[in-house]
Amino acid sequence: MKLLGSHLHLIKQNPSEMKSPPLNEREFACLVKEHSRIINKVCYFYATEKMPFEDLRQEVYVNLWLSISQFRGDSKLSTWVYRVAVNTALMTLRSSKSKVETGPLDLRSIDVSSEIDDEQRENLQTLYNLISRLDDIEKAIILLWLDEYTYDEIAETIGLKRNTVATKLHRIKEKLSKAI
């Protein structure tokens, strides 16, 4: 993989030719800006009192910076960023406390289209509150599914088998339906 210029065009290289990408601070800032929606969403859903949103987001940035050389180009860059963000959140939360407490999510903190009406906004708020109560893996799976990732992409991102993702997603949907 090579990162070319500040626009971050990714090109697959022969693994024997792979070196650390020539990623400078400006290129990294472009990567973060391009994928900020993914990073912010993951951080909002996993933030706690002991690990506030800003601290968690900084952890994600650090892990992205440290692991960019491991991106092989086998998947989309957004899938890889999602995986790093979710893994960072899970590892950070596991190290900060054994049981994660979640609370209601303020919908204003997430970029929601201004084209939705109050009833849709309320329904979305309810959905986000229910998602915030799911366990960590369930939360990661449903967020990826809501972002229209395929089962295969979710499996790759989370590190599960495709059939496991399908089963878990079915159970998550049932759980959310019953909670509504």
Task: Walk me through this protein's architecture.
With 180 residues, the protein is mainly α. The protein has a domain of 101 residues: Rna Polymerase Sigma Factor, Chain: A. The chain contains eight helices and two strands. It is globular, with a radius of gyration of 17 Å. The N terminus is likely disordered.
Shape: globular
The average pLDDT value, as a whole number, equals: 77
Q: Rounded to an integer, what's the Rg over CA atoms?
A: 17 Å
How many distinct helices?
8
Q: What name is given to the CATH topology of one domain?
A: Rna Polymerase Sigma Factor, Chain: A
Count the strands? 2
* Share in β-strands: under 5%
Q: Which CATH class of one domain is shown?
A: Mainly Alpha
Element-level helix/strand string: EEHHHHHHHH
Kindly report how far apart the N and C termini lie: 45 Å
Enumerate the strands of the largest sheet in spatial order, edge to edge or round the barrel: 1-2
Amount of helix: 55-70%
Output the structural class: mainly alpha
What is the correct CATH architecture of one domain?
Answer: Orthogonal Bundle
For the record, what is the CATH homologous superfamily label of one domain? RNA polymerase sigma factor, region 2, helix turn helix motif
Low-confidence stretches: 1-20, 98-102, 105-112
How would a textbook summarize the main sheet?
2 strands, antiparallel
